[in-house]
Specification:
68 residues; alpha+beta; 22% helix; 34% strand
Length: 68
C-alpha cells in the first residue's frame, strides 16, 4: 500500500489523515492522525490501529472527534 490513503480537510482547516507506513511495505502499519493549523509535528491525535476495519473506524471516529 502507498503512504497516502485518505485525507479529510475539515471546514476549519483541521486535517485527519490515514496512511500506511512505511509505504509499500507489507509489514507496515496503518496510521491515523489529526492535525490543527498544519502542525504535522504535533498532532492532536495519533493512532496505529490493527489491520481490522472496526479498529480503523474507531480510530477515524476518535480523530474526527479530536478536531471537530
Amino acid at each position: 500500500m502507498g503512504e497516502d490513503l485518505l485525507q479529510i480537510t475539515c471546514a476549519n482547516g483541521d486535517i485527519v489523515d490515514v496512511g500506511w507506513y512505511p509505504a509499500w511495505n507489507a509489514q507496515g502499519r496503518l496510521r491515523v492522525v489529526a492535525v490543527r493549523g498544519q502542525d504535522w509535528e504535533a498532532p492532536v491525535f495519533s493512532a496505529q490501529p490493527e489491520k481490522d476495519p472496526q479498529a480503523l473506524l474507531q480510530a477515524l471516529r476518535a480523530a474526527l472527534a479530536s478536531v471537530g
